[in-house]
Amino acid sequence: MVKKNNDVHSKGKNPKTTKDESKMVIPRKTGYFNFLKIKGHEMKKQKIVDKVDTKTKKEIANMWQKLDATQKAEYDSKTPSTNASNKGCLKISTRCSPKDIKDTINVLSDEKKAAIEEMGFVSLLEMKCGKLSHSLCHFLVDKLDPAESSIVLHGKTFKISVDDFVRIMGVKDGGEEVHFTGSMDDQDIVNMRNSFLGGKKLLKNNELKQIMVGTEEASDFFKVGFVMFALCTLLCPTTSVYVNLKYLLPLRDSKAIARKNWASYSLRFLLDSVRSFKENNQVYIGGCLLFLQLFYLDAIAHGSVLVDRSVLPLTVWGKVETEKMKKWLQKKGGFESDKVVVMKTEYGGLGDDAKTMTHFAEELSSIKKDVATLVATVARMDKSLSKIMSELSSRNEEKERTLRTPCPH
To answer: 304 CB contacts (<8 Å, ≥6 apart)?
Structure first.
């Protein structure tokens, strides 16, 4: 049984509610969020505001209240990206937060980090990326075909597989499917749920983060909690701020965590989330958008950023590297440019895309020839310089002899 740590829950009062919170999960209509997104972008574009802060959101909410039912209905079918020119400008809304995972791990004890490694999530300990590039993620989601598990990058179509998720994220399959069998009313599940909730009805992601940091030992309680936190904030985030406590079902045996197929489950979750996002015109999108971002950066055959491709992209691409690459891409014409060469690295090595590999080989050969030419040029210049120095030396010696020779009277 997973035991609760007595000191991990705050002693403050729970937020006041007038009704059972479990019966109050009534999401606001998509139309309002689309209106908020569109108006916020318009106000920034027109220089009315510098950013859409709380005050601005209240102003937009007042505008929304003044619309009649017909006007509001118009925004139900709209999405913030209806204007193609705005696709790269508007932020995509997601709960995927690499920074939360990174910040949490940074303050954990060595004992807890060892437990994370033992469960098969060692790559998260070395994660470099802190924040997502929302403009890039918006573009990638648009280009991803979840039904075919493929994505179009700079005119080329790439299939995305579980091996890609393993290669990019370092999260592997252990052999057992992630099943949600059993009941949330099973006594061991009830006990675990109560340990995390601490008397509350629901648990927010940031509250779970505080619990993980506050837990003193790397116990089963910590192990289950950390994996839930990793799933809800990075690998399989939903559109909600609340922890999906149903993960307690596949996590009920902490010793079996490393044996689960987390890579397959995470990729499938991403594809399902993108499909739902596109079909239902949602504002928030679930799934591991960090994987898409890293998949794209890793696919660029060459650019302004030199990275070690022998290690996990998760541990290579940080904020600095990503921003440098984005600036280079802008000079090349942007995310849609046909001047950018892309190639796919397979799990066991380079891919078999013959045309791309041939192009890459030709580029490398051309660079080698340029280097050889430069070396030869430098050698010739060195030889010429030596000759000039020798001539100058001879002239100086001749001049000195002339000066020493006495003049005839």
So the answer is: 324, 325, 327, 328
